[in-house]
Amino acid sequence: MGKVFQYKNLWCNMTKKSKFLWLIIFSVLIFACKKDKPEQLSQGVSISNGGGVYIINEGNFQFGNAKVSYYDFASGNVTEDLFQPANQAALGDVCQSVNAFNNKIYFVLNNSQKIVVVNPSNFVQTATINGFNSPRYFLPISNNKAYVTDLYADAISIVDLNSNSITGNIPLKGWTEQLLQVYGEVFVCNKKSNKLFVIDAASDKISDSISIGYGANSIQEDKNGKLWILCNGDSTKNIYASLSRINPVSHQVEQSFSFADKHDFPLRLKLNGSNDILYFINGSIYKMNITDSNLPSTAFIAKATHNFYGIGVNPVNGDLYAADAIDYVQRGIIYRYDVNGNLITSFLAGIIPSDFYFN
Fold first, then answer.
1. What separation in angstroms does the CA of 345 have from each of 38, 176, 256, 321?
2. CA proximity to 321, closest of 89, 67, 78
3. Measuring CA to CA, how many Å separate 303 from each of 213, 266, 335?
4. Beta carbons of 158 and 145 less than 8 angstroms apart
5. Rounded to 5 degrees, what are φ and ψ at 136?
6. What pLDDT, in 10s, does the model give residues 45-56?
7. How confident is the model at residue 21 (pLDDT cuts 50, 70, 90)?
């Protein structure tokens, strides 16, 4: 306490000129210690008619700080959080995924055990779907019905889109992930299985299972109507990651690629706008034509010091957006690359950016 009074007296005895000089020196030292950062984010709702991309930021587990950022193509402006300013409340805990349907946007909040529905024109919340265990992905099946996968429920939830409520479930053991509807059937990834499960959308019952690699995490449909399923394997069981192409009509595996290292852990399979080029993360970001006979041997965008956690491809011009989660604590960085892998720009997003939705 004595030292505090000594410093206080010293300051009081200084001349005005001395105080001014010390303030200048102190300010210079403070600003010199700050690290360079990407551009700061703007606040408030700002969505251009010219198009842009929603950035899903998971936020920290149990912190309730998930956010939805927005990058405007025309202006280059970034809005840090669309939801909070529009609703005067936080979105929730761990934003897992997003889907848009019938002029509504559905945000799946994993640890909050809910789905938040918003009006895309002003981002005001219009409904909440509750009662999930640990929801992952939302898929509209018809104007009245949707399916939601789950981490722990051992079931697919059936949601009534009119009442915004869970009306039933389809028993399916294991951690269910991405899902896709083709020809009246829904193909479901399961991370705790070596099967791709098939649901009859009319009866809401499992109709088949297709043997693929272990740990399916993402699924895409190419321009030929074929399904591509990315499986991350399990290094502890010496099961290698794989990529499979399936005929959705015959349910036959037409081609399967096995990754070379048992520690490979590919995820986030995406397609470009013409649905003929695949992208995925395996540490670095890889690019593969649907006609290729082998997995890519070199990275499209090298990992270097990045911690790539999510990717998205602009369906109009093919620009690739890569989310760098950095250390999963501070706000992440989004890198925008052109079709040749050249960096166009970068900007800050929220904490743990993981997925993109282009509008």
1. 10, 35, 36, 10
2. 78
3. 25, 13, 12
4. yes
5. -120, -60
6. 444 455 999 999
7. very low
Q: CA-based Rg of the chain, rounded to a whole angstrom?
A: 24
Q: What confidence tier does 31 reach under pLDDT thresholds 50, 70, 90?
A: very low
Q: Kindly list the strands in the beta sheet with 104-109, ordered across the sheet, starting from the edge strand earlier in the chain.
A: 95-101, 104-109, 114-118, 125-130
> In 3D, which of 149, 211, 135 has the Cα closest to residue 180?
149
By DSSP bridging, strand 320-324 and strand 308-313 are antiparallel
- 8 Å CB contact between 169 and 158: yes
The CA dihedral of 67, 355, 241, 296, to the nearest 10 degrees, is: -140
Alpha-carbon distance of 269 to 81, in angstroms, equals 26
Q: Record the tokens describing residue 174, joined without a space.
A: 């294991």
- HEC profile of 11-76: HHHCCHHHHHHHHHHHHHHHHHHCCCCCCCCECCCCCCCCCEEEEEECCCCCCCCCEEEEEECCCC
The residue among 55, 126, 59, 125 whose CA lies nearest residue 86 is 125
**Would you say the pTM of this structure is higher than 0.90?**
no
For 30, counting Cβ atoms within 10 Å of its Cβ (0-12 exposed, 13-18 middle, 19+ buried), the class is exposed
Neighbouring-strand partners of residue 6:
none
Would strands 185-190 and 155-160 be described as parallel, antiparallel, or unpaired? unpaired
Using CA atoms, how far apart are residues 273 and 285, in angstroms rounded to an integer? Answer: 18
- Rounded to whole angstroms, the Cα distance separating 182 from 176 reads 18
> Backbone dihedral region of 352: left (phi > 0), alpha (psi from -120 to 50 degrees) or beta?
left
268: left (phi over 0), alpha (psi -120 to 50) or beta: left
The confidence band for 270, taking pLDDT boundaries of 50, 70 and 90, is: very high
Q: Which of 180, 190, 186 is nearest to 155 (CA)?
A: 190
d(CA 122, CA 140): 22
Please work out, in degrees rounded to the nearest 5, the angle formed at the alpha carbon of residue 308 by the alpha carbons of 110 and 213. Answer: 70
Amino acid type, 219: I
Angle at 153 between CA 107 and CA 128, to 5 degrees: 30
